[in-house]
Specification:
Strand content: 25-35%
Shape: elongated
Helix content: 10-25%
Largest sheet: 12 strands, mixed
Order of helices and strands: HHHEEEEEEEEEEEEEE
Distance between the termini: 38 Å
């Protein structure tokens, strides 16, 4: 298990590599974590290396190789934090970064409802912009958002169940370990955890009964990132 500081540094390194293609310098890592000296960074890197998340390449500048994707900052096997929303529970979280947080449910917004999204075997993308759903205002931040209904149980270990209404922020890029809506070869949509592995993209389930699917980058188009969900109890 990683300490909060180790996890913070690992996410910073991962995000930096995605943006710049190289690992950050020790000074950049120190500044990002607001540490006074490089010795603290050295200790954190040693801890990450001992746990198999990174590898230092000797005699090279900016020579940190990521070996494993950063884990979530909160254990998603635990019950997500939620609050009532009428006859529903509402959850907000990074679903792969920081854990879920309670939301205020006073006030609602109507967002487009684009139909069902598979959380199992990919299904043909459904895009019906004539329908909409009410969601708490606190789930909607900057940018464009829409909703989908989850079909299947392949993301159940991430707290995402069959029948949940998920809130998606539209985007074309997402960090490793994010749960995304991925359009595969322009015709099939699925909700999966995103990992970049060298020159390939892995769409990973959160259920050991489902296999990880590997694609070439040109086969996968990110169409949004999961930011919250609503679960109703009838």
């Amino acid at each position: 298990m990683l300490t909060p500081r180790q996890l913070q540094l690992l996410h910073f390194i991962n995000d930096y590599v995605l943006r710049h293609g190289v690992s950050p310098s020790f000074d950049e890592m120190r500044d990002a974590l607001e540490l006074r000296s490089k010795s603290g960074i050295h200790r954190l890197i040693t801890g990450l290396e001992e746990r198999g998340y990174i590898r230092r390449l000797q005699h090279r500048a900016r020579a940190i190789e990521l070996l494993r994707a950063p884990p979530a900052a909160m254990d998603w096997d635990a019950t997500p934090t939620s609050v009532p929303f009428g006859a529903a529970n509402v959850v907000r979280g990074r679903f792969g970064g920081a854990g879920p947080t309670p939301v205020e449910t006073d006030g609602a917004l109507r967002l487009p409802f684009f139909g069902r999204i598979a959380a199992g075997t990919p299904i043909e993308a459904i895009c019906d912009q004539n329908n909409s759903r009410d969601v708490p205002e606190a789930l909607v931040g900057d940018g464009e958002h829409y909703t989908l209904q989850v079909v299947g149980d392949s993301m159940i270990d991430a707290g995402i169940h069959d029948g949940d209404l998920v809130v998606i922020r539209r985007c074309e890029q997402a960090e490793n370990n994010a749960v995304v809506v991925a359009l595969i070869e322009g015709r099939e949509a699925t909700l999966k955890r995103l990992h970049r592995r060298g020159g390939a993209i892995a769409l990973e389930a959160a259920n050991p009964a489902y296999e990880t699917r590997i694609y070439r980058p040109e086969q996968v188009q990110v169409q949004g990132r999961l930011v919250g969900l609503i679960r109703r109890y009838d």
